[in-house]
Design a protein that fits this description.
Layout lengths: L3 E8 L4 E8 L4 E5 L5 H12 L2 E6 L5 H4 L11 E4 L4 H5 L21 E2 L5 E4 L2 E7 L8 E5 L4 E5 L2 E2 L2 E2 L9 H12 L7 E4 L5 E2 H7 L6
Parallel strand pairs: 3-4, 4-5, 5-6, 10-13
Antiparallel strand pairs: 1-2, 2-3, 7-8, 8-9, 9-10, 11-12, 13-14
């Protein structure tokens, strides 16, 4: 099995993290989250590495994580998301009250709905889907056990947690999600959040002021 390569990009007007994944020497790439402007951001990497985009995995339906997906949704690109956020993917104008004024939001067609406990695959590596509502109804985290890393969207950040005051948010649910789905991972697990720097499960269990173990 070749090395898994990860390019982290901070994109869009509020600094949303997107992650382009590919296997060293491989020909396909997977994009985790698609902020505004991600098409231009990934094109140079894909040209340099001779890659073709095969899938977009969306951690949730908020505009800053999906607004760049529509321009990438060519034939053959699989787009994954959780059905609890279906209305956000299909009717993004509903988010205009908390999006950047004047930003045009295009619907995203999800080609495959993913569910809690489902197993995805990254070139032979198992990826477990964990449903973590609270920030919004359909937030999922993607745990790559073999790599000891987890892509968490806006569930938890270094020293903070996702907002629960937006439509569909619920802090009690967010707290449960973090305790039951994030803090149950190995403390050495690397957390790749939707905003800000990477952290680890152990670091957040020890010092996150918003959700204690």
């Amino acid at each position: 099995m070749s090395v898994l390569k990860i390019e982290k990009m901070e994109l869009g007007p509020i600094g949303t993290n997107a992650y382009l994944l590919w296997e060293e020497g491989g020909e396909e790439a997977i994009l985790i989250d698609a902020p505004p402007g991600c098409s231009d951001a990934i094109s140079g990497i894909m040209e340099r590495e001779h890659l073709t985009l095969s899938a977009i995995w969306l951690t949730h339906g908020h505009w800053d994580h999906m607004a760049g997906a529509s321009v990438l949704c060519e034939e053959g690109v699989e787009v994954l998301g959780h059905q609890e956020d279906q209305v956000l993917f299909e009717q993004p104008a509903l988010m205009s009250s908390f999006a950047i004024p004047g930003l045009e939001l295009e619907p995203v067609k999800i080609t495959r709905w993913i569910e809690h406990g489902e197993e995805l695959d990254i070139w032979g590596r198992k990826v477990e889907v964990r449903h973590c509502p609270g920030h919004c109804p359909g937030n999922v985290i993607l745990w790559v056990e073999e790599e000891s890393r987890c892509f968490v969207g806006d569930v938890i950040f270094a020293g903070s947690v996702g907002r629960a005051d937006l439509p569909g948010g619920d802090f009690d649910a967010l707290e449960r999600s973090i305790r039951q789905q994030v803090y149950t991972l190995s403390e050495s697990t690397l957390i790749h959040p939707g905003h800000g720097p990477d952290t680890s499960v152990g670091a957040e269990m020890q010092s996150n002021p918003f959700v204690r173990p």
